[in-house]
Amino acid sequence: MNSLFDNHQLGHIELPNRVVMAPMSRVRATTDGLATPAMATYYAQRATAGLIVSEGAQPSLIGQSNPSTPGLHTDEQAESWRQVTAAIHANGGRVFAQIMHGGRVSHPETHGLQPAGPSAVPAVGDVFTPSGRQPAPIPRAMTTAEVPEHARSYADAARRGIAAGFDGVELHGANGYLIQQFLSDNANLRTDRYGGSVANRIRFAVEAVAHTVEAVGAARTGIRLSPGATFWGVQENDVPALYTALVKELAAFDLAYLHLEVTTDEATLAALRAIWPGTLIINPGAGLGPVQAGPADADHWLRKGADLISFGRAFIANPDLVERLRIGLPLATADEATYFEGGNHGYLTYPAYQHQAA
C-alpha cells in the first residue's frame, strides 16, 4: 500500500507526498473578485501539501455564487492571482485553481444578475448575499443556445489561471453547483439535448472538460465530483449508472486526476476506481459530518485504491498538516465561526505545532 508520504507523478509535476489540500471557500477576496496578499500568505503557509487546490474561482460574473470570492474571468483578476501562485511556488508548493460556476446557487444581490441554471428550479436553502443569507431565488433556465458558452467559460478561466501561474485547474463538478445541477434529476428538468437521459445529463460536464482540455491540456485538468450528494437540494436517482457513464466518458481525456468526495457507498466508489485509469484523489471528509478527516481515514482509502487523499477542514487550523500527520502530532480544530468571517483572524492566525521543551 502507498503511504501518504510517498511521492506521486501527477501529469507533468511530481508531488513530494500524497496529501492534497482540498478546495475550501474562505471568502477573503475583494468585492470585485481580486485575490489579496492575505490569500497569498494563507496558501504559502500550507505549501508543504503535495498539491493545493485553491478555493473556487468563478469563471464568469453570473457564475459567482458567494460574495467576496475570487474570479478568473477578467485580466485584472488573473493578475491578482500571480502573488498567490508565486508565494506557493516560492515555498516549494504546487497549486491547481478550482473553477466553480455556482449556477442557481447565487443571488442577484451578489452580482446584479438573475442566476441561471439548467431549469427554473430554485436551490434548497438560504444563499449568501452581501446583506446576509437570503432564500435562494428562482433561477433563469439557460436556453439551449447559451449552454455551450457556460461550458466554455471553464476553459476561458483555465487559460487565465495557467497564465497566472497555476500548475493546473480543477473543474468543480460537485456540491450542488452548476455541473452537478446538470447531472441532477430534480434540478435539471430539461427536454433538450442537455436533459432527460443519463447521456444527456452528463453532456454539460463532458463538454466543459473537453473545452478545458483543448485550452490547457489534459495533464493540467482535473475534475471534482460528489456522487449522490444532496447539497443545495440536488437529487441523483441512479448514482451508479449516472457516474459510471460520466467517468467512462471522462476517462477518455487522460485527465490529471479525478477527485471524488465520499458521498456515496464504498461499493459505488470502488466501481468508479475500477474504471478510472488515472490518478484518483479521495476526499473522505464529506462522509464524516462535523468530524474532520484524519490519518486513519487516509490509510483506509489508500488501501481501497486512492492515489492521493484530500483534507479540507484539517488544513484550516493546521498549516503544517503534512508534518503533523508524518510524525503523529495532534491536530488543532478550526473555529467554524471564522470560516467565512473575513479578515485575518481564523485565517492567518493558526500557528504551526509548538513543540514543548522537555
From TrEMBL:
Pfam family, one: Oxidored_FMN
Segments forming a coiled coil: none
Residues covered by the NADH:flavin oxidoreductase/NADH oxidase N-terminal domain: 4-331
Protein name: Alkene reductase
Organism: Kribbella yunnanensis
